[in-house]
Structures are given as C-alpha cells and as structure tokens.
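User: Predict structure, ligand fe (ii) ion.
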Amino acid sequence: MALDFRYRRLGYVALNVTDLDRSARFYESLLGLQQTGETGTGERLFRCSPRHHDIILHQAHEPGLRRVGWQMESVEDLHHVRRHLASLGCPIQEVDSEESADLGIRDAFRVSEPNTGATFEYFHSFEEADRPFTPTHTKIERLGHVVLGASDHARTEQFLLEQLNFRASDRIEGAITFMRCFPNPLHHSLGLAHASANHFHHVNFMVTDVDDIGKAFWRMKKNDVPIVFGPGRHPPSESMFLYFLDPDGLTVEYSFGMEEFPETGPRPPRTLPRTPASMDYWGAVPEPRMGRIGGIESL
Ligand SMILES: CC(C)c1ccc(C(=O)O)c(O)c1O
Ligand SMILES: [Fe+2]
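Assistant: Predicted complex:
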C-alpha cells in the first residue's frame, strides 16, 4: 500500500502525572499553558494554540507518556492510515463518541506503536477553542515535538519511516533520529533516541521570542525548577533551547526557531557525529536527570 497519507501536525500529547493539582499549577503558571477544562474522567486539558487542547494531564501512579495524538490532513488520510495499520495486523481501538466529544475530535482511533508500545491516536477534525489563546509570560507558538527513547531504535525508526510516513530530517549517530510528520515542514515533531529501555524522553514547546528562553531561565531558577540542559543552541534544527523538569521529573523543553522543510525537494538527512558539539553549539552539558523520568503507558 502506498504511504501517501498526510499528517497535519502533532495534535496533542497526554502525560501521566502523579499529583494532578501540582502539575496543573506548573503547566499553567510556570510553563504558560491555559487550562481549558476537564474531561468526564477528570483529565485536565491545556492549550497554547487556537485548538481544543495541546496537552492532557492524567492522574496516574507513575509519570510518563500516556499517548501522542496525530492530526491528519483529511478524513481520507485518516481512513488511509487506519486501513494501512490494520493491514499490518496492528489492533485498532476506536475512540468512543463520549471520549471523542470530551477531546474535541472525531473518528479517532488508537494503535500501539509495535516497538516502543507508545499509544498513537489518529484523528482528523479537531475543534477550535471558543477564544484565541492569550499568552501570559511566554509567547508559546505551538506544541513542538515529543521525543521517545527506544530500546530497538533501528526497528522503531524503520517502522516510523516505512509504515507511518515519517521522514528523517537528521540523525546524531547512535543517539537520536529527528523526524517530521510528512508533509508538515517542521524539522521534527517526533524524535527517537537510542535507549536501553523504551521511555518518554521529553516534550517540547516552541516559543516566538528569544527572550522567552532567557526569561524562562530566570523564572525557573527563582521557582526552584531544575534546569537540566541549556540555555544552548541545537545544531540539528538550529533552535535555541532550555530544558527543565516538571514536578514529577518529566523533562520539558522550550525552543526558539526551527528549520522548515519544503514538501518537494527537501535536503537529504544529515548524520552528525555523536559528540557534545552536535547537541549544542554553546557548550552546555546536559544533567544526568535530563530525559530520565517517564515510562510509556501501554494501550
Ligand atoms: C538533546 C536532544 C535529544 C535534542 C537535540 C537536538 C534537538 C534539535 O535540534 O532541536 C532537540 O530538539 C533535542 O531535544
Ligand atoms: Fe527537543
């Protein structure tokens, strides 16, 4: 089957947190998301875009990734990816109408990415919020990307590229692959790190102003939020970055700027050597806590 289904964007990321109130305060007041409501099961919805939500926080015993939502360009693209995954023998779980209504989506289904066990949810229509997103201290532009650690990196990368129509933008040899969800132009919406076990690595928010990075550095310091990498500038995507930990120790990144790819005639992916200089132009060194906490919940 030709893999010509088209993604619109990384739709949303659902995270498991161990103290919902504490995390809600962090994601709202320190990160700058707007809380928009709750689902019938008490999950909290947050946004940084005109859409229904960008982040879901779910109360759980262990922190980590609950699922990743992918918005497709059209209903035909959604049917296409569903048929393709079913033809590969991947069990498809439909999202029932009550939950879909809560999430502002329609015709959604979930599937377990067979190598990492991460739940991918595919949908097409995504409700808009009734009011525009009004940034507070940080001019967040969008939910940027999610990075997973994979114990079988080669197989996972192959599945994502050959079966799910992601495209490789760059690789750091033996460390990470940066992938865009075709034809979305952003350098990466999904990153796949080499790891000894499958795990959540980090979630990223793109900001519109370099001052958002500098201001976050001091805001996090004043509020005793651990900064685990940066400020710095990533050679692969050219973005300036700051990584810090949420109250459960999940890693969150702010970044400013990112290379964009044309749909046709993109440059080929590069392979950068596995050296500190491939992670940061400015000489920052990641703390061991970066990208360490966070399991992957299975479907
Ligand atoms: C340190 C990590 C995994 C990393 C490296 C490079 C980029 C980038 O080029 O944007 C990232 O976003 C990362 O998270
Ligand atoms: Fe990142």
